[in-house]
Fold this protein.
Amino acid sequence: MSERPSNADLPVLPEPGRAAFVFIFCVSLFIACLISAAVLAVKPIAFNLFGFGLLVPVGTFAFALTFTATDVISEVWGRKMATHVVISGLIIRLVVFGLFAMGLTIETWVPWVGPADYWTAENEAAFEFVLASSNRTNIAGMAAFGLSALTDVFIYHYLRERDRGKNRLWWRNNVSTIIAQIVNSVIFITVAFGGVVSLAALFSLILGQVAFKILTAGLDTPLVYILRNFATGRKLLDFRG
């Protein structure tokens, strides 16, 4: 019988403090936005950009925040930790996909389960519309998320190592996010909406997502600086590094 590990053999958890708070906050933000984006992506909205009408899934903003979280983790805790968070997010997406599928089909494979008396056909139709669509966007999201998130982490760390010692956090944050978001948009929109909407609408969705993400990519840069500064004990408005 093997001996139980001593306390000295157990992993050491971070001490409660600023760094631990920021890490937990970033991981929580990452997971919350990742899951929210899968559901919110069901609804596209139209907005006018310099006279051009573009379609954007509502989940785009939520997904954009996942890159804020991974960039902060990359900056403070390194590439390996950011990669662990991305892989964990992919596993969570699989879990959510399974839970959605269960919610849609449980009455068909569990003999003693049926809908409640007050659950109408209209309720079921609305439920299926959201979750069935969410399952498709979940599959699209898993493919797009895995490739784009790893792209973001790779480019961010390549630029971080190349520009070490220079004041370019803003540069690596924006470049890695924009490229990764373009990768994500093309894959996600094609898989999620291909065959469901017209080619014109498909192109508009891709263009809308890319335009929206490029416009908003710079908005998260101050937040990346502030979270990094809070975690590392710098002044909150220190924009060096």
